What does this fold into?
Amino acid sequence: MFEGLGLVLVLFFLGLFLLIVEFFLVPGFALPGKAGILLVLGACVASIHEYGPLVGAIASAVMLLTGGTVSVMGLKMLPNTRAGKLLILDRTLEDSALPEREHANLRIAVGSKGVALSDLRPAGNVRLEGEDYEVTCEGFARAGERVVVVRVQSDRIVVRTEET
It folds into this structure.
């Protein structure tokens, strides 16, 4: 049906079309992208077979450069497409930050001692200086065990079991 230049052009443009479909309509690396790459490579092989090594190599270089240019343009335009908006997160960490906790800016000193109110595996509740806090434990502690504060970071208290 197609011979010579017609075959090369049909394979190349069909492959290019499938690559464009992949970039803009099908998220991920699915069948259209793989088929598009194979068709462009098939066009390169067909051009070498039809026109010899020199003309085929030049035609292949032009096709690969064109395909690469379309690919780069597709990647630059992808964030503005419907599929790109599904793939790319548009929120920042500040948008989803947790609200300030009740005990932010804690005034618990390193070395303060307390009692585990629950098992600390590694997180749980501890009573320190008469108040209950949610803490993280270096290791594990059972409810009722004595603990000591080893680090305080803004709203996070780290404890470990007290050495006796």
Residues 95-101 have pLDDT under 50 and may be disordered.
